[in-house]
Design goal:
- With about 700 residues, the protein is mainly beta.
- About 5% of the residues lie in helices and about 30% in strands.
- It is built from eight helices and 34 strands.
- It has a nine-stranded antiparallel sheet with strand order 14-15-16-17-18-24-23-20-19, with no helix packed on it. It has a six-stranded mixed sheet with strand order 9-8-13-12-11-10, with helices on one face.
- The protein is globular.
- The model has no long low-confidence stretch (mean pLDDT about 95).
- Bound molecules: MU-OXO-diiron and calcium ion (CA) (3 copies).
- MU-OXO-diiron binds next to loops.
- InterPro entries: PhoX, TAT_signal.
């Protein structure tokens, strides 16, 4: 019989309501099952997680704060990469951070840990080890996918794992440390947030808020030559002022070098005497081969150094350069694109090649930063030492192209890029090739900036208001964030100009439609602070995950599923603001077509005090993996002995692991399936 005709993809679920319950809510007809939580052993020999603060050996257990993740298929025998493998595969994921009330990672220690300096080595060792990456094998069984605890593919990467520095900064003087006199290596990766996967089957991870793990002495500016010294300008631009304390005090863990490296003060005569340059070795897109532990992990410096989130490839075409889209998640930071020097060869998708292929495409190319114009056009500006705005920049004297990529924020300042409302993830629509960016929120977006760290409203970041519930007067920033999208001119990955609009403005349903709820979100669609963003290659559906502080009085964080249109499908809406002196300012918001009940629905709500972040699926679209990050992260150390005061007990309260209804909360991966075995979130058979 002939195959049935494909039918268009539609949303295959009923919207779930907002929720404050300490559980994962999914639509009727779907099941969410926990498969991998903080502390779960990954080597077949480490004991089960007791979750009472006495566990050790965290380099053989799941890390904390599960974040971005990607799925990599295996063949049925589990011996080789199979991009179509749905029954068996690897999940590679980030462990971004750890829940802490003071210096110590509270839930990791029996008494909540030591919040004074010096920190005990035994506590520091646990806390370092629960950062980094995981790779775990999953297999589909009678009750769905489960982690294979003894798989030989399983591994942890921690902030101590040796890592190679590749690209323009390899061997540069900026990378020389006591650990690597030739500037070609560093140890580990940290604060890994968003992810990506490459056309050659490897994992990309972004290093985000890495600066805060390091400390610098109050006198360090003087030691380095004063406020105008190049390293001081750089350190300040990346958020490490002299005298800043480190997040966890790891530098006090003991005499060993693995502790000393977290203090980046200049103390010796030469770059190899201390860790003055250690911060230059963090802040990159990092590539790992999930299938091959013997391959070195590579920091791809050509893609720039900043607070990275995800890395998304533009549509891949034979004979054309590859584009990688990226964002810098901090208030007023920028949107970037890397374009490879090499043109794509389809032969490089051969499942046997993998990370050595990355050496071809990700170590040489052009790094661009975005400028958004009020008329709905935009430009990519190359960050090149040949650009006179960069070469002659008064604030910082760039030495060479390596210096430009290492100090990409300063180079982007020099060329006048557009300061955005905290770019989090980006994702590329698998059919249109349009590039979507979540701009999560920005408390510093002001009608009348009062300091140099604040930004005025502009067309690409057009909202600033005091209180979405009370009204729209005043100027407290972009509270709920928005999702911007762009289309490259000619749909070319190497284009230097584009058009753009805003797919969705986050808002609370019922808020002022003219000034706040610009996308007219209903109660089944409303959200705040978009963060994770992903398109299913199977269905073309858009998944939006939230990390919200502004709407958590009404609902826990959530995930929505949308069917977006394309750039320019909506309208231009003038936003009229009145300044303190009575004068008015009009900013034209470019609002995409308003969603309908058929094109945007809430699919999932998480437990208390979590963020929903990280998503991937099996190639057949029938198992969707989602990460629940830091349930119950609001913890007071004094309450550690009183579980009744924990705001969350998930997933123990869902029957997973030790502790039950009194369990310490744990970040965890859930797998979501449709009870009838169909595509998750979708009806129909054809990609959009
Ligand atoms: Fe780790 Fe920008 O969220
Ligand atoms: Ca994020
Ligand atoms: Ca976030
Ligand atoms: Ca978080």
């Amino acid at each position: 019989a002939p195959a049935p005709a494909p039918t268009p993809i539609t949303l295959g679920f009923e919207a779930v309501p907002k929720s404050l319950a300490d559980t994962v809510v999914v639509p009727a007809g779907y099941t969410a099952k926990v498969i991998y939580a903080l502390g779960d052993p990954i080597d077949g020999a480490t004991p089960a997680y007791k979750n009472d603060g006495t566990d050790t050996d965290f380099d053989k257990r799941a890390g904390d704060h599960h974040d971005g993740m990607e799925y990599f298929g295996l063949n049925a025998a589990g011996t080789a990469r199979d991009p179509a493998g749905s029954e068996r595969g690897l999940i590679a994921m980030n462990h971004e951070a750890t829940s802490h009330s003071g210096l110590a990672s509270t839930y990791l220690h029996a008494d909540g840990g030591t919040d004074t300096l010096p920190r005990p080595a035994a506590e520091v060792d646990r806390e370092i080890a629960i950062h980094g990456l995981s790779v775990v094998e999953v297999r589909r069984g009678a009750s769905g996918h489960a982690v294979q605890a003894a798989s030989g593919f399983n591994r942890r990467v921690t902030p101590l794992t040796p890592v190679q520095i590749l690209g323009p900064a390899r061997g540069n003087a900026l990378m020389v440390t006591r650990y690597s006199a030739d500037g070609t290596q560093t140890r580990g990766t940290i604060n890994n947030c968003g992810t990506g996967s490459t056309p050659w089957g490897t994992f990309l991870t972004g290093e985000e808020n890495w600066a805060g793990y390091f400390t610098r002495a109050a006198a360090d500016d003087t030691a380095r030559g004063g406020a105008t010294a190049r390293s001081v300008v750089s350190l300040r631009r990346y958020g490490r002022n002299a005298g800043a304390a480190s997040r966890h005090g790891w530098e006090t863990g003991g005499a060993g070098d693995v502790y000393a490296r977290w203090n980046i003060s200049q103390t010796g005569a030469a770059d190899t005497d201390d860790y003055r340059n250690e911060l230059n070795t963090f802040g990159y897109i990092v590539e790992m081969d999930p299938y091959d532990k013997t391959q070195a992990i590579r920091k791809r410096t050509a893609l720039g150094r900043f607070a990275h989130e995800s890395a998304s490839f533009g549509k891949v075409s034979a004979g054309k350069p590859l584009a990688v889209y990226m964002g810098d998640d901090s208030r007023g930071e920028y949107i970037y694109k890397f374009v490879s020097s090499a043109n794509w060869s389809a032969a490089d998708a051969d499942p046997a090649n993998r990370i050595t292929t990355g050496d071809k495409y990700l170590d040489a190319g052009k790094l661009y930063v975005a400028r958004f114009n009020a008329d709905g056009t935009g430009n990519w500006i190359e960050l090149s030492i040949a650009n006179l705005d960069i070469a002659n920049y008064a604030t910082y004297d760039f030495a060479d192209q390596a210096d430009v990529v290492v100090n990409a924020r300063l180079a982007a300042d020099a060329v006048g890029a557009t300061k955005m409302d905290r770019p989090e993830w980006c994702a590329v629509h698998p059919v249109t090739g349009e590039v979507y960016y979540t701009l999560t929120n920005n408390s510093n977006r002001k009608l009348e900036p009062a300091s140099s760290s604040q930004m005025a409203v502009d067309a690409a970041n057009p909202r600033s208001y005091t209180d979405a519930k009370a009204g729209v007067t005043g100027s407290a920033g972009n509270v709920h964030g928005h999702i911007l999208r762009l289309r490259e001119n000619g749909s070319e990955t190497a284009a230097t100009a584009f058009t753009w609009d805003v797919y969705l403005f986050g808002a609370e349903a019922g808020a002022d439609l003219a000034k706040v709820n610009l996308s007219a979100l209903t109660a089944d669609q409303d959200f705040s602070a978009p963060d994770g963003l992903w398109f299913s290659p199977k269905t073309g559906l858009c998944f939006i995950q939230t990390d919200d502080g502004a709407y958590t009085d009404v609902t826990n964080c959530m995930m929505l599923v949308g069917i977006p249109g394309s750039v320019g499908d909506g309208e231009v809406v003038p936003l009229n603001y009145t300044k303190g002196d009575g004068s008015t300012v009009t900013v034209n918001a470019r609002v995409g077509a308003k969603p309908t009940a058929s094109t945007l629905r809430r699919f999932l709500v998480g437990p208390v005090d979590c963020e929903i972040t990280g998503i991937c699926e099996t190639p057949d679209g029938r198992a969707l993996f989602v990460n629940i990050q830091h349930p119950g992260e609001t913890i007071v150390k004094a309450d550690i002995g009183d579980p009744g005061k924990y705001v969350s007990h998930w997933p123990g309260n869902a029957g997973y692991g030790a502790g039950g209804a009194n369990a310490r909360p744990r970040s965890a991966t859930v797998v979501i399936t449709r009870n009838d075995g169909g595509l998750v979130a979708a009806d129909g058979t054809a990609v959009l």
